[in-house]
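name: query_chain
kind: protein
chains: 1
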Amino acid sequence: MFPRIPKITQALMIANVVVFLLQQVLGDEALASMMLWPLGPNGLDLFSAGYEFKPWQLLTYGFMHGSFPHLAFNMLALYMFGAPLEYTWGDRRFLAYFLVCIVGAGLLQLVVGWWAVSQGGQPYPTVGASGGGPHALACAALDPQHVAAVVTLAGVAPFADEPWWFDGMASPGALESARDGGREGRRVYGETAEFDESSFVDTDWQALAEEWSPLGADAGRASAEATANGSVPWGEIDDDVAFTRDWGFDLAQVECPVLVMQGSRDRVIPRAHGEAIFPQLVGGEFWLRPRDGHVAVLRGLGVALDWVLEASSR
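structure:
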């Protein structure tokens, strides 16, 4: 039998669970102003974009969680350590201690971020390939102070439920099942789906046999681990579902320079995706590599990083 949970500890646990449920129902986009963001160009403007610092975030961020295990382990720690402290100190002193720890940690995060930039910690570039492209763009859109430039290689375009978005894909079934059936539909599809080798062109296979062979080995190992003992690869599934939903930001929010690099022969994320991303950017460049497929385009990473150095110094 667990001992009775004291009232403040119990109330904090309930509040954390309620906020987590709201995250699942409303989505993180609706609760973005509750997360802890760095101080933006608008200062303490309470009516600025949700992705900038607001004073109340020093408290509310402490009730936000990224996943169920994150919530579960935090609540276990709150029960194991919070309840004894509340019994020892009393409810008022324990609540004050809890709030001071939350606010203090938030302030420390803000100060460390400010200090790093002020002492020469320069904004950094983000690079994303394939499904990582949207993530790299999201960093620039939602944290513009810290992202100097973006490179996407064979990146996915914002979803459009139109034929062009799927045209040219050798195997669009995974994304179509995610669009039509969400997580469960994509899970069911994955139970029988097999990799279509025609997704990669000759230059892709060549790259995987040569300088990008570690990438192929890592991908194979990750897939084996994700599906071991009948496990479901939820990370891959969630990515596909996210690609076929609204991203939660507009490409026009990306103010830094962006290089969109795409292979003309890509049969996983066809060139139309790069051609769709580029016009929506404030400051973008589009480089098309005529011989490359989905993997071979990574051979352009070196010149892309040279471009980052040049773009960051403008």
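note: The mean pLDDT is 89.
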